[in-house]
Design brief:
By secondary structure, the protein is mainly beta. Helix content is about 5%, strand content about 40%.
């Protein structure tokens, strides 16, 4: 598995080695040793799996308590996955990074604590799976507005299109209103 640096400090794109033939494929989706060798000693406490239809946008979420690092991947379909750096001391504070994750490319993204995270489904549906370093803590969950002009995420929406949003995501806060780390 290759861990590649992204433009955001401490965020990594993972490209697993895929062994395939006419029967299917095999890949290693998590290796503590691979992360340790990259200087990341991580323990996961929870695995999650969501399914969403085309045009649904989930995010941009984070927790101020029980902050979660996430190892995210798509096992069916395709999403445009996005992270925003919320760490005051970071050189990349306020910057975003997006990557297409799909069942075909097998890419994964390491999202460390201190980042808002979300994704937009570009296929008919997508199964999105992620490992978390801490528990879900709904009382401290914050939602940064998916379309905040200060951050300026360039979502791959159809021209003139808008994503389908939950009530929570539709009421996301502006950059100036969110707590930072």
């Amino acid at each position: 598995m290759k861990l590649e640096a992204t433009p955001l400090q401490d965020v990594f794109l993972l490209r697993p080695q895929v062994f395939g033939d006419q029967r299917g494929f095999f890949l290693e989706s998590w290796s503590a040793e691979t992360f340790r060798s990259a200087g990341l000693d991580i323990s996961f406490v929870q695995d999650n799996h969501s399914r969403s239809a085309r045009g649904i946008l989930r995010g941009m979420h984070y927790q101020t308590e029980h902050t979660q690092g996430k190892l995210v991947r798509v096992t069916s379909g395709e999403v445009f996955d996005v992270v925003v750096d919320l760490r005051r001391e970071s050189e990349t504070l306020g910057q975003w990074y997006g990557e297409t994750l799909s069942a075909d490319n097998h890419h994964m993204l390491w999202v460390p604590p201190g980042f808002a995270h979300g994704f937009y489904v570009t296929s008919e549906y997508a199964d999105f799976q992620y490992k978390c370093t801490d528990i879900y803590h709904p009382d401290s969950e914050i939602c940064l507005a998916w379309n905040d002009p200060t951050v300026g995420i360039e979502w791959p929406l159809p021209e003139g299109g808008r994503p389908q949003l939950s009530t929570k995501d539709a009421e996301g806060l502006a950059w100036a209103e969110i707590p930072l780390f």
